[in-house]
Design brief:
Elements: E1 35-38, E2 43-46, E3 57-61, E4 74-79, E5 83-85, E6 96-98, E7 101-103, E8 109-117, E9 120-128, E10 143-148, E11 153-154, E12 160-168, E13 172-180, E14 185-191, E15 196-199, E16 208-214, E17 217-225, E18 232-241, E19 252-253, E20 257-263, E21 268-270, E22 273-282, E23 288-293, E24 299-305, E25 313-315, E26 325-329, E27 335-343, E28 350-356
Length: 357
């Protein structure tokens, strides 16, 4: 499991869509523009004091709507205090003129850049915001398409990340997936307070999956690359799941959850004893209470560090009147811990309810 990223979870997502336009040629001496239109997005995101990831560009057309080459275009900063280079380009053979670069003003706020040709103009607007602070929404049950770019938020290890606000309407099991073709995806989950809650358990796989038992509330998902300085397009998707934990997977679990689960033949099997394992991130000196109740099996709970099999706490029966288990554990150190919900009898299986507080 990858070590925690060294940055508080905040973000901004720069979404830029290029328009595909047909091109012709009507160049000639003294060519002028009958109209100009944006080729790049007119609404851009970026960090204060940094260059935008896609320099603004325009398409110059004549009165017949054909691209015109050789027309001078002027790009002028009109608000925000930023600067440009190459602000007097000439439209190329495809009728396109692009500013050399646009650096946003040093403080957060709105920046505008106006492209002018033959008394026609297009305005580009950039919201200068720290990319580690803005939080676009990702709706559970949908797919969000994004792109890691050099202007996005960076962790201390050099990897690039986009953060998303996620609201969970009801408690349950949720699966988050990040897919990409140009880099190794790495998902992270945070509580709204910024406390880490889950990371990609299998970072060697290209796509990243997080299964989480979580209560209703607001959370933050980080769409990240496992390696530093990787860029490219990705998709982030999420879905609710009613499938019980199985196949010895390692789902994350958050406090405030009560979940119906079951011990099955496909669960973890140690000397014939079936069990499910869960990962939880704990703060030092904050007590954890885990309960396992079942009418079908003799419940048993135990917990150990994420990097060790040393049992730190366990419980078989709450008291002499029940086969349910309740384990109370107070960690001395902050970090990931793994607890097992299992039975005490080889081959026993059946439904149980897991509660975490």
């Amino acid at each position: 499991m990858k070590s925690l990223r060294g940055l508080s979870p905040h973000l901004a997502l720069a979404g830029i869509v290029a328009l595909q336009l047909s091109c012709g040629d009507s160049s000639g001496p003294g060519a002028s523009a009958a109209s100009i239109e944006a080729v790049s997005s007119t609404n851009i995101g970026g960090a204060p004091g940094a260059q935008v990831s896609e320099p603004p560009s325009v398409l110059v057309k004549d009165e017949n709507g054909n691209p015109v080459s050789g027309v001078p275009v002027t790009f002028t900063v009109t608000s925000g205090g930023g600067s440009v280079t190459g602000n007097h380009p000439t439209s190329n053979a495809s009728g396109i003129a692009t500013v050399g670069s646009w650096t946003l003003g040093a403080t957060s706020g709105t920046n505008t850049l106006v492209a002018t040709a033959s008394n026609h103009s297009v305005t580009f607007t950039a919201n200068g915001a720290d990319p580690c602070e803005a939080l676009p929404n990702h709706v559970v049950g949908s797919t969000t398409n994004g792109e890691l770019s050099p202007s996005d938020c960076k962790f201390d290890d050099g990897s690039i990340v986009d953060f998303y606000q996620v609201t969970v309407a009801s408690a349950g099991t949720y699966i988050f997936t990040q897919t990409a073709s140009t880099f190794d995806s790495f998902l992270l989950l945070y509580l709204s307070s910024g406390t880490i809650a889950g990371v990609d358990p299998l970072p060697s796989q290209v796509d990243s999956h997080l299964t989480v038992l979580m209560p209703a509330g607001s959370f933050i998902v980080g769409a990240n690359s496992f390696e530093p300085n990787k860029t490219g397009a990705y998709s982030l998707s999420s879905t609710a799941s009613s499938v019980h934990i199985t196949n010895c997977e390692l789902p994350f679990v958050l406090r405030g959850v009560s979940s119906a689960q079951s011990l099955q033949a496909t669960d973890c099997n140690i000397n014939g004893i079936l069990g499910d394992q869960y990962v939880i991130y704990l703060q030092a000196n904050q007590a954890l209470t885990v309960s396992m109740s079942s009418a079908a099996v003799d419940s048993y709970l135990e917990i150990h560090p994420g990097n060790s099999n040393v049992i730190l706490a366990s419980n078989d029966d709450i008291d002499g009147t029940t086969k349910d288990a309740r384990m109370v554990f107070t960690p001395a150190q902050e970090g990931f811990y793994i607890f097992a919900a299992r039975t005490t009898v080889a081959g026993a299986s059946g439904a149980y309810t897991l509660s975490v507080e």
